[in-house]
Design a protein that fits this description.
Blueprint lengths: L8 E9 L9 H15 L5 E3 L4 E4 L9 H11 L5 E4 L2 H4 L3 H13 L3 E4 L9 H34 L12 E3 L6 E3 L1 H15 L4 H10 L6 E3 L5 E3 L5 H8 L7 E4 L2 E4 L8 H21 L11 E2 L8 E8 L5 E8 L14 E3 H11 L3 H8 L5 H13 L2 H11 E6 L6 E5 L3 H9 L16
Helix pairs in contact: 4-5, 6-9, 7-8
Length: 445
C-alpha cells in the first residue's frame, strides 16, 4: 500500500516599505527573510516558494496601485498561489476599505493569509471581524502619521525652518539642527553667478564660464553612502539658482515665499537686477522667434506608406537670441503600428511656394474654370492672386487643397482640389475683379 504524496502548496511573500532610502539592505529584505524563515521552519515539504519576490519599495500603503501588489493579485487570480505571507496586515494595505477588498480577493481565490506578527485569520465570522479591526487600526495609524507630519510642517513653517529636501548650492545642512548654513566657497560662486546675470550674461554663457573655471555642481552623499552630483553646469541649473528665493533667506512655498531662518547670501537688489535681466532676455527671445504656419499640414501623403505627413521644425542657434529655423513635412506617424518611413522629408517653404506660384499661373486657372474662361479674365485672376499676402495664400491652400501626392521616383506633385474650391476662390476675389470680368458660374474640376 503506497502513501499518497501531499498536495503542493505554492506560497508567495509580499513586502512593502513607504520610503526608498537607497539602502543596500532594506526593510523589504528584512520582511522577506522573516517570512521565509517562518515558512521553512514549519517543516512542511509540500510548501514551495513561487521563486519570485513581490517587493514594493517606496510605495504608500494607502492605494492598491502598486507594481508588486498588482503582479501578486494577477497570480492570485490565475490560481498560481495558495498561501501568502506578510509580516503584518498594514504591509498589504493601510486603508480599511481597500484592505477588506484585498482580503476578500484572497478568500475567494482560496489563498491562505499568514501574518507573521499578527493572529492567524481564516474565513470564520470571528476572523472577518478581527481583520476589519486590524484594517481599521492600520488606517487609523496612517492618518495619525499624516496628522503628525502636517503639524510638524506647520510648526517648522511658523519658525522659518527647513522642512525637507537637499541643501542647495551655496548652503550645507547643519548636522545638529538640519537647518541651512552658508558654505563660504559655494556662496562666493553663487554671488558671482548673480552678478554676471545682472550684467546681462545669458545662463548659457554663465554655465560655460563655470565649467571653464572647473567648478562643479554640488556633491551629495546618499543614505547608502554613495556620492552623487558634482557634474558640469548647464543653463537650466544656472537658471534654477537665479530663480531660487533661498538665497534671499527665504523658502519657496507654492507660488509664494515664506521667511527662512537661514542667512541670505545674495542682496535683494542684486537678486532683482538678475531677475530683470533674465526677464528682458526671455521677452526679446520670444519676440524674435517665428513659427511656421504649415499651410499643407495633414494634406501631403507619404509616397511610401500612404499616411499623412507630419510637421517638424529644427533650429540652429547663431547666437543666444537668434536662430535659423527650418521646417519640414516628414513621415513621422506610427499609425497602424508601423514605424515612420525613413528618408521621407520635404522642406515646407519650397513645397508651399511651388503650389502658391502654381495658383498664380493662367494654365492652372484654365484647368479649374474650363473653356469658358477668357484670357483677360485669367490674367486678372493671376494678378490678384499675386497681390494677396502670404497669410491669405496659406489660408487659401488649407481650404482649397484636399490632398497632395508626391511621386517617389520623379518628385512630381499631384494636387487634389476640394469640390467647388474654385468657386470659393472667385467669390473671395469678386470685390477686386472688374465688373465685366466677374464670372457668374464656375465649373470646378
Amino acid at each position: 500500500m503506497s502513501a499518497t504524496s501531499p498536495r503542493i502548496i505554492r506560497y508567495a511573500i509580499y513586502t512593502r516599505q513607504s520610503v526608498d532610502r537607497g539602502d543596500s539592505f532594506s526593510s523589504c529584505d528584512v520582511q522577506f527573510i522573516t517570512c521565509r524563515d517562518v515558512a521553512i521552519a514549519s517543516g512542511r515539504p509540500e510548501l514551495q516558494w513561487v521563486d519570485r519576490q513581490f517587493d514594493d519599495v517606496g510605495y504608500s500603503g494607502a492605494p492598491l496601485e502598486r507594481p508588486a501588489l498588482h503582479a501578486l493579485r494577477q497570480m492570485v487570480a490565475e490560481g498560481d498561489i495558495q498561501r501568502l505571507y506578510a509580516v503584518a496586515l498594514d504591509r498589504l494595505s493601510r486603508n480599511m476599505r481597500q484592505a477588506v477588498v484585498l482580503l476578500d480577493e484572497l478568500e475567494r481565490a482560496g489563498v491562505e493569509l499568514v501574518l507573521i506578527n499578527q493572529p492567524e485569520l481564516n474565513s470564520s465570522p470571528e476572523s472577518r471581524f478581527l481583520r476589519h479591526i486590524l484594517a481599521a487600526f492600520a488606517e487609523f495609524e496612517r492618518e495619525m502619521i499624516a496628522a503628525r507630519i502636517a503639524d510638524s510642517r506647520v510648526y517648522l513653517k511658523a519658525r522659518g525652518r527647513r522642512i525637507a529636501g537637499r541643501a542647495p548650492y551655496g548652503y550645507d545642512a547643519d548636522p545638529s539642527t538640519r537647518q541651512f548654513v552658508a558654505n563660504e566657497v559655494e556662496a562666493r560662486r553663487v554671488r558671482a553667478i548673480f552678478k554676471r546675470a545682472a550684467r546681462g550674461q545669458a545662463p548659457r554663457e554663465i554655465a560655460r564660464m563655470l565649467n571653464k573655471q572647473g567648478w562643479r555642481t554640488k556633491v551629495y552623499r546618499s543614505r547608502s553612502g554613495k556620492m552623487i552630483g558634482g557634474g558640469r553646469w548647464t543653463p537650466r541649473a544656472v537658471l534654477a539658482i537665479l530663480r531660487n528665493p533661498v538665497y534671499l533667506g527665504q523658502f519657496a512655498d507654492g507660488q509664494e515665499t515664506r521667511p527662512g531662518s537661514h542667512p541670505p547670501i545674495v542682496a535683494q537688489s542684486l537678486f532683482e537686477e538678475a531677475a530683470e535681466a533674465i526677464g528682458s532676455r526671455r521677452t526679446n527671445q520670444k519676440a524674435r522667434r517665428q513659427r511656421h504656419t504649415y499651410a499643407l499640414g495633414q494634406k501631403i501623403v507619404c509616397p511610401k506608406c500612404g499616411r499623412k505627413l507630419t510637421t517638424h521644425s529644427t533650429t540652429r542657434w547663431t547666437s543666444e537670441t537668434h536662430g535659423l529655423g527650418t521646417s519640414y513635412y516628414r513621415c513621422g506617424s506610427n499609425a497602424g503600428g508601423r514605424a515612420p518611413c525613413k528618408g521621407i522629408r520635404y522642406p515646407c517653404y519650397e513645397v508651399e511656394q511651388f503650389i502658391r506660384e502654381m495658383f498664380c499661373e493662367e494654365a492652372t486657372w484654365q484647368t479649374l474654370l474650363g473653356d469658358e474662361a477668357e484670357p483677360r479674365q485669367l490674367q486678372a485672376i493671376c494678378k490678384i492672386m499675386e497681390s494677396f499676402p502670404a497669410v491669405w495664400s496659406d489660408h487659401m491652400l488649407r481650404r482649397c487643397i484636399d490632398k497632395v501626392e508626391i511621386s517617389l521616383s520623379t518628385s512630381e506633385l499631384t494636387i487634389h482640389i476640394v469640390e467647388d474650391a474654385a468657386q470659393s476662390l472667385l467669390a473671395a476675389m469678386r470685390p477686386k475683379l472688374p465688373e465685366d470680368m466677374v464670372m457668374a458660374q464656375v465649373a470646378s474640376k
